[in-house]
Amino acid sequence: MIAWLGIGVVIALAALGAPIFAVVVVATALGFYLAGIDLTVIVIEIYRIADTPLLVSLPLFTFAGYLLSETQTSQRLMNVTTSLFGWMPAGLAIVGFVACAIFTALTGASGVTIVALGALLLPMLRKAGYSQSYSLGLVTSSGSLGLLIVPSIPLILYGIIAQQVQVGEPFTIPQLFIAGLVPCLLMLIALSAWTIWKHGNVERIAFSWKNVGRSLLAAKWEIPLPFIVLLSIYTGVLAISEAAALTALYVLVVEVFVLKELKLTELPRVIRETMMMVGSILLILGCALALTNYFVDAQVPQKIFNTINATVDNPLVFLILLNLFLLLLGALLDIFSVVVIMVPLILPVAVAFGIHPLHLGVIMMANLQIGYFTPPIGMNLFIASYRFDRPIVELYRACLPFMVVLMGVLMLITYVPFLSLWFLELG
Fold first, then answer.
1. Which one, of 236, 215, 177, lies nearest residue 83 by Cα?
2. Rounded distance, CA 250 to CA 227, Å?
3. How far is CA 214 from the centre of its chain?
4. How far apart (Å, rounded) are the C-alpha atoms in residues 420 and 254?
5. CB of 161 within 8 A of CB of 343?
6. Alpha-helical regions (H) of 253-334
């Protein structure tokens, strides 16, 4: 009776809009209390999070992303990609896909991409001859394309939690980023191919070496950034936390002291906003890992596996159900909440079905990426509706074709593990 009453309290808190960390803390405390375990274990788990070296990368990469979103980086990025790819069939749309993916990876926020790049891209697409529906669908759906590209914050978060859970084959964060490269490229290629087929006759932007040189010169400080991060991580010169520190320092110096697009007096505000964002993630993470310990003690993952295994004995069927479940969660919750709460539950079950943790990470990010603009309440839909002052139903229709294309790629990367694990199998 007490257990059901407690569950009712947790559900009521969530329904009333209580912060997710509060719901998780109450659920955790309730579980340990009913199990007769001292509640100090929650504090111990939160402290253990603070002692995780990889965790340093989260606030540093997030800070760099906030700095970039406050400056004219989005405009310079659009100019570079337009000058390089605008001459191709449907070149401006392809520019949109690439620019949005890179900007989302750098800033770590889908909504920022829609607000910053969408405001530039939407009028450019309309002027070039793309339909209103297609243009809205592109800027809304492309805002989350960079979740599989370094230094994606949600992907790093998945890696940290998966390593804490300690089931399945061990892996490193750089391996996780390598696993996401081919799936991300497939998504960009599929969207570009469909766009060329549908809008290949749209007027192109004439190629000019002068424009290329001018745009590259204007973005000379931002262009090295992805290469610094990629090379330092993949070559093993720097650990992921060291690469994050270098990235944050580089962006800070360039944007504040070299380009001077962000005043020194505005820096405290940016730091405050960054730390509020990171603080909420870390609080949820610490509470969620405490809840994970309760789940392990109560053998919840094993019970879930046994329940699923009683009706589903095929890994392919399990993956279908997993995709549907993750798409639903991606449409209902923010990505950080889904990752910190569900990874400890899903990962042991997936490993029991023979799914590699790296492959699961790619599947999860791909699903949540699509969930961002899945009706009825995908976050990107409401951000775009507010930003461009369009009815939400219009955005549902606009995003549907993009969802179909990306769902096709999702099926491919779900059922062909080699696309994510090729470097392990070849190595």
1. 215
2. 12
3. 32
4. 35
5. yes
6. 267-297, 300-311, 315-332
Rounded-to-integer distance, Cα 168 and Cα 189, Å: 31
Angle between helices 91-107 and 132-141 (to 10 degrees): 30
Can you give the C-alpha Rg of the chain in angstroms?
22
Full-model pTM: 0.75
Q: How far apart are CA 336 and CA 77, in angstroms?
A: 26
Q: Taking a C-beta distance cutoff of 8 angstroms, is the pair 180, 155 a contact?
A: yes
Per the document, the length of the chain is 427
What end-to-end distance do the CA atoms of the chain give, in Å?
55
Rounded Cα–Cα distance for residues 270 and 276 (Å): 10
CA gap 353, 169 in Å, rounded:
13
Reading the block at residue 415, the tokens are: 């059922």
Q: Take residue 318 and report the two structure tokens written for it.
A: 């399990």
Is the omega angle on the peptide bond into residue 224 within 30 degrees of 0, that is, cis? no
- Treating both helix axes as pointing N-terminal to C-terminal, what angle do 91-107 and 110-128 enclose, rounded to 10 degrees? 170
CB 188 within 8 A of CB 97: yes
- Structure tokens of 418? 């080699």
Q: Compute the C-alpha angle 124/127/130, nearest 5°.
A: 90
A 10 A CB-CB count for 136 gives 24
How do residues 158-213 score in pLDDT, each as one tens digit?
Answer: 888 888 878 888 888 888 888 989 999 999 999 989 988 887 777 777 778 888 88
Please state, in angstroms and rounded to a whole number, the distance separating the CA atoms of residues 137 and 127.
16
pLDDT digits (tens, 9 = 90+) for 312-329: 778 888 888 888 888 877
Cα angle 110-357-375, degrees, rounded to a multiple of 5: 35
Task: Find which of 43-52, 98-107, 320-329 is predicted with most confidence, using mean pLDDT.
Answer: 320-329
Nearest 5°: the CA angle 108, 114, 116 is 85
Report d(CA 134, CA 124) in Å as an integer: 12
